[in-house]
Amino acid sequence: MRTDSKDYSTTLRYYEVSISLMSIGLALLVSADPATIQQFSLALRELSISPDACQDAASAGLLLKRRKFNAVIVDFQLGEQSGHILDEARLSPSNRTAVTFGIGDNDAEVTSAFREKSQFVFERPLSAQLIHKTLKSAYGLILRERRRYFRYPVSIPVIIRSQSMQEVRCFSLNINISAGGMALSTQVPLLPGESVRIQFTLPDHTAPLLAESTICWSKTGHLGVRFVSISDEQNSVLRGWLSQKLEETLPEFVAGQFQKGRSLGTTRIGLSNAETDDVLRTHFIDPAFLLGRKRAWGTPHVAQSSTRLAWN
Question: Are 54 and 171 within one domain?
Answer without folding.
Answer: no
